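Lab notebook page, bench 4
Experiment: in silico fold of construct C2
Operator: M.H.
Input chain length: 70 residues
Purpose: comparison with the prior construct
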Amino acid sequence: MSVVRYAIGKLSLPYFTKWVLDRFDVVLEARRSAKPLPEQNDFPSPIVDAGIVEEMSEGLVLIMPLQQVF
């Protein structure tokens, strides 16, 4: 079953990008570099509450990958 949420969902819009650029006066920077991903040390260390960990481990359910089930 395929659901199309919007009326234009399956339409081909070959000139849409150019229309947006022209209509809204958009300027795209060529080869803009992205910010580097943060390193593990950039995040604060987690605060572990032993009581909560114990409560969670009591109700923990093992979920096996499908390959192991079938």
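Observations: The first helix runs from residue 16 to 23. The CA atoms of residues 6 and 12 lie 13 Å apart.
Next step: discuss at group meeting.
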